[in-house]
Amino acid sequence: MTDLVTVGEATLRFSPPRGERIPTAREFVAHAGGPESNVAAAAATLDLDAVWLSKLPDTALGRRVVGDLRRHGVRTGVAWTDRGRTSTAFVERGAPAGATTIPDRENAAVTTMAPEDVPLGVVGDADTLFVSGATPTRSETLFETTATLLDVAGDADTTRAFDTRYAATNLGPEDARDVYDRLLDNVDLLFVDESDAETVFGLDGDVVPAAHSLRTRYGCETVVVTRDGTDHPVVGLAGESIYEVPPFEVETHDSAGAHDAFVGGFLAGRHHGEDVHGALRDGAATAALKRTVVGDAVVGSRRDVEAIRERRSE
Amino acid sequence: MTDLVTVGEATLRFSPPRGERIPTAREFVAHAGGPESNVAAAAATLDLDAVWLSKLPDTALGRRVVGDLRRHGVRTGVAWTDRGRTSTAFVERGAPAGATTIPDRENAAVTTMAPEDVPLGVVGDADTLFVSGATPTRSETLFETTATLLDVAGDADTTRAFDTRYAATNLGPEDARDVYDRLLDNVDLLFVDESDAETVFGLDGDVVPAAHSLRTRYGCETVVVTRDGTDHPVVGLAGESIYEVPPFEVETHDSAGAHDAFVGGFLAGRHHGEDVHGALRDGAATAALKRTVVGDAVVGSRRDVEAIRERRSE
Amino acid sequence: MTDLVTVGEATLRFSPPRGERIPTAREFVAHAGGPESNVAAAAATLDLDAVWLSKLPDTALGRRVVGDLRRHGVRTGVAWTDRGRTSTAFVERGAPAGATTIPDRENAAVTTMAPEDVPLGVVGDADTLFVSGATPTRSETLFETTATLLDVAGDADTTRAFDTRYAATNLGPEDARDVYDRLLDNVDLLFVDESDAETVFGLDGDVVPAAHSLRTRYGCETVVVTRDGTDHPVVGLAGESIYEVPPFEVETHDSAGAHDAFVGGFLAGRHHGEDVHGALRDGAATAALKRTVVGDAVVGSRRDVEAIRERRSE
Amino acid sequence: MTDLVTVGEATLRFSPPRGERIPTAREFVAHAGGPESNVAAAAATLDLDAVWLSKLPDTALGRRVVGDLRRHGVRTGVAWTDRGRTSTAFVERGAPAGATTIPDRENAAVTTMAPEDVPLGVVGDADTLFVSGATPTRSETLFETTATLLDVAGDADTTRAFDTRYAATNLGPEDARDVYDRLLDNVDLLFVDESDAETVFGLDGDVVPAAHSLRTRYGCETVVVTRDGTDHPVVGLAGESIYEVPPFEVETHDSAGAHDAFVGGFLAGRHHGEDVHGALRDGAATAALKRTVVGDAVVGSRRDVEAIRERRSE
Amino acid sequence: MTDLVTVGEATLRFSPPRGERIPTAREFVAHAGGPESNVAAAAATLDLDAVWLSKLPDTALGRRVVGDLRRHGVRTGVAWTDRGRTSTAFVERGAPAGATTIPDRENAAVTTMAPEDVPLGVVGDADTLFVSGATPTRSETLFETTATLLDVAGDADTTRAFDTRYAATNLGPEDARDVYDRLLDNVDLLFVDESDAETVFGLDGDVVPAAHSLRTRYGCETVVVTRDGTDHPVVGLAGESIYEVPPFEVETHDSAGAHDAFVGGFLAGRHHGEDVHGALRDGAATAALKRTVVGDAVVGSRRDVEAIRERRSE
Amino acid sequence: MTDLVTVGEATLRFSPPRGERIPTAREFVAHAGGPESNVAAAAATLDLDAVWLSKLPDTALGRRVVGDLRRHGVRTGVAWTDRGRTSTAFVERGAPAGATTIPDRENAAVTTMAPEDVPLGVVGDADTLFVSGATPTRSETLFETTATLLDVAGDADTTRAFDTRYAATNLGPEDARDVYDRLLDNVDLLFVDESDAETVFGLDGDVVPAAHSLRTRYGCETVVVTRDGTDHPVVGLAGESIYEVPPFEVETHDSAGAHDAFVGGFLAGRHHGEDVHGALRDGAATAALKRTVVGDAVVGSRRDVEAIRERRSE
Fold this sequence. Notes:
alpha/beta, four-stranded mixed sheet, about 325 residues, homohexamer
């Protein structure tokens, strides 16, 4: 039985060295990243048997994506096709004033991933299913596939986890909310960033009532509200309980993917039997580890995450 | 007055180091290349005032293309747009057995370059206009633009040079021949590779009659037949005269763009007053110089080309 | 059911850039390599479900080895331990006169891999088991483990493939022959390099009688004799039939691991239903592909191997 | 008509990676830099048609300088010569305690650039002429050339901008003041760093009276006083008005050339019709963008500068 | 006469680039480091004639260590052997949360360095001998060798300097104290880190009484207590005098080896005639310089150290 | 007693990667090289105690040169000065058609090295002194210093070895011959390249009579004639004997410095007691080893050279 199934798109990202820019850099470092693949990589780092399902063109670029994720310990289940592109993006690292990300994701093969491209049995056999808002908003087909996945998981008692990821939807607030409304009743565990809560649902101010409001709206068992930057604690609501965990301080080399590492760490904590508070701590420690590493996916081991956790418990 | 105007597409190419492959390489070196931009770079290396005209998205990728060409001494005239992509390609260098080029050129901005995107006055004022078969076969719009360019150049007594570049057309032989038939009556100087002559026009065997046949078919003043590899001489027909120039031997680091360097060197030789034989020698020396350099565009100076030419005259 | 199980040691190899040497190089490129892991990587490249079983210390170095192999598409089954080292080696690439390999493999964790460290059920369920002479000669424990593996495979009708790999045994000819004599009666498919046949078994001169002699000695169904360098054909004996396949010519960047790529390609060919002749061709094409790539493991796809095969059939 | 003409020297700078030093670094990154070329690059980034005029040896090093500047969008007008060197410098990046710059600029070709080496017509046709104190103090010939340039510009109503750049003069305060006194009556727009005002003109304390004093001394229309570091605002005096603009905060990767980027940004702002206050903001934003980028010249686009400007207006 | 003799082990350290980790980095930068070799390098940077004595295998790795140290200006006296390993370590730079150092020092050749492997005459002729606690705790043989060295130096009036370096001993506090007790009566100048004083000797709280207590315990002429991090001053006790010198602020790129650079700077200061206060300043400035440079050994010159010292005296 | 003293200039050379050129390369690799320092490095590789004497500016560039040579095992005796430059050169590696070397050696500090800058006692105590024609032709001062060195060595029975190195003299044939005539009567062992013999002394055709003629002209005990490329044997004349040794075949990565490696290997062979024939073989093997390594100086060990020698003796 698989611990975690994630389904979505991964992009092959090309980055010039820190301090250099796209117009003049000689070399670009390549690595694969995407909300669901990053979450799977974080979970695998914490020893979960994590699978990422997707659809890719059968080219060297497509195989590159798979090899990168496998190196991070993720198992991959890919529907190979001769049609459509591998998503690429050209990303300046760090956060310089004029930093630029040029996504180049038109006509990606994944946008044609229909339910029959997904081994649904794997989803039913899994402990947890994870999908982000980036997936159902990529194409009509992916919306249907996402809905099917949540249905299948619901029928099989697979925990359904969802991350709103509004910024990745490329939609306006109302269209995004509409998508969420059509899917989230079918979700057990909802991750939402504070800024998404504000922009999409108009929930600004204190995050606890915001989380409460979302839990009520969609009937999720657990709602976790993440926060931008490293200043504020994340907040989790489960049943009547409210938990807060502040971020861990580390030397940041690249904050890309830190949010996804949090999600992967949280899911791994839950899988290992932690309560919501412990899982929030695992998530925060995994996000901190991610920030020390260049690239979208966390690199390290469960011991590394524990070492970060321990530092503050004392 | 401009010496040479070239019009077409340039692709931003990403290559892993020699001996590494797309699925596992860490770094990719970026550089711009395309038939017309490579020709312009070669001509500029030989001190021509060479301009490349194109259409690009107003992004860091588009500006990268322009910066690369400017560094090679090419002036650029770009219609900037907010629509369409910058063409990319992922290219394994050298010629290993399984080497792979993955072009990613769908929906490139250049495919929408209409005649009104081109400063036609520059074409009329130029000494020579150069276009390859890659351009008119990219889109209907580019076909019309190419035809317009040849008309404008014809009216202005600008020399019209054309390179068949069949492999870059992505067409079958018949469709390609059809495009050539609609354009080449309007051409003064035709470059055709031996393999194109064979595949598209069925002209195999000796290259001299092949060149003669093409000259008759299209009424070009001069026809130059290039040859694959570095074993056979190039052949030029002008009037009743036939010229042959064997390739120069060099230590090859990258043969990409050598054909285009030949064309640019030939055009520069003509511009500097060389006869067809001298221009063929300039072309062959420029192609040899290109092979010593990694990338699509030749790097060096007129002196470097002359040094190669001299080596054999002795 | 697994297609191929390989069992053995992988070494983390650190190489300076070509043309630089250990005493003065600034940077060393790391990658994992070993006879059995290389064979598994080659088989995985040809779409086999290939597993590599081993024992490693639970450190970042050990995880590095696993990540590298997973990236090549190999599944890994590792007994993690807190004792013993990860094997390392410092290797100057290419074949300069004074090139140096400094193996640093003392006290490697793998030398303590007992039969109970190996999931023997996986071996019994597999189509083919592969082990090289490097494994049973590393330690007494590994000899016993190897013997057990061959027994288990024999009982389960798993094809047992073995590569003599004399140079990797660090033994004298007589000791090595002694090891072979104790194991090879239990082998179905034997790979032996021409030089091993000569040094260990005194079989010099024509390779066909040498292969015949080894088949008789050990009662193997199939014997394949590989040859040093790229000048001579490999030879396979199966039943009364003799097959020869010459090497494919490619631009060589690194010949490390080409022998293992041959073995992996041969096993994949057999798995895909090729006869011995076809499998020899698959092996030779995979070895050729390996030579175009830097590192111990082949990188590419089944299509790449087929492209090389096709080139000569014409 | 050209928007901006700058005249001066550019140095080919070789830098080890950050954290490495000249005695032990393996690799040095090369790029061209100089007060006037940096200003031209900044102005070109902001879409001005900017030309840099100079004199260089006709070698690969000289061509390198030109290619680097062209890549930044600067047009170049170079008097090529067979005499004299290309200026080089070996520069440790960042600001470590013992950081070292070793300039190697003796006998540079540019020191022989006489008025007849400069296309004076270009200066007369330009909107603005820019020269720094580094130029007239390099040689007697360059002093005369600078004086001629200011005369020609004055006659043609070309705006004359001058940056004192005392540290680059290699002169004592009195000699430098003497040079300034002989040239600055002929200047419309004067840039002076606070430390230059103090060291050369004895104007310490508040910068506003210092600027006022310099404007009176030389009769310049506008005086801009820049400040060391990123703590204090720049100050501009024009007519009776006084403007202050604080620096923009960014992640600094390399502060080399930030002063020149300020000047280029200011000149571009003026050219685009901004008043002194707006131009100071453009300058400050361009300097901030420069700090995010490694090298002497800013890399980016007018949009990047605007994005930085916008951040604070809110 | 040699100014400084140091005796001990150097490790060949392989580090991925900052922000990358061992499991996924492509390249590792190699450099040699060790307490005694780092001290010698720092002293040589300050113009001392410094020798490092050790025992190494006669391989390219062993020669690499020697070449690295020679490049830093250290003379080397090595007993070459065919037995034993070169110590290696795989070190993630910077201080990310989960940073890892994997030492791989078992069976190093140096552990067999007996007194007869050391040119004792060099020790007797030297001005100062330096050894750290890392050396006598590596093996029984090295303990005897260390004791012999201190005896020889004592007989010859060579100043005996010792650094406790508890963390490098791999011993528990009691075993370490036992080693120190058997050696330190024979020492003139003792360096001890505040944390060692606390852990090994139970001396916490104010460092002055701690230093006093150690001076009394071992009868050393001078005791210097260093402090973790860059927040607290170092403290020196000599006779009845107490000196404090705060650290110098610099842009830190790598703090590895800063403690050793302090020791080398202090010894050089003493050698150049500085009193304890001046030597503490030299030490602190050398440590600061080290922090600006990547690697274990300081790179620079006496001028660089003086430049740092001067900055604060003003 | 020193085995070998060499006296001359070393240049800090900056090279782009193979296949890249000065105008467009991003990175340049630095290393020190010069006839006398290369010879010393080769001799040190073969275990000689070799010293290089020179004069350098006391800058990071000067210290870089010294550190590079020390890393190669050369001891250095440098007269540090505050005047004059470090020689630099910008060198494209390999031998592409248009490859360029831009020497930048004007006003080098070494040109002022007077006899009193040289520790003449070291020369008198040495076994052998080596100087090349590049040294006395750099300046009047260096001519006098060279003459003094040869005198001192002659008086002390130090073997005087000299390499004509005509191409490095920057003189015409007659001027060079004049310099040689004034110095070479004082030389015991003369190295002359075949092309120098031809150009300077008009000795073309067979090399044996050429060597004979030079030995007669200058009264040298031994004359060694080297040959361009790797096709022809080197020839040595000593007394009435004539020896020929063909070059060893290796994979060439960089032929820079191979001639100097030959000289160093020959001198080391003589020092180790080889006769002229054996020393020629040592020289040829050292030159072969050099070709396998990038840079001006050979890297390796006496074993590496012996391994190459052995390969052919069989």
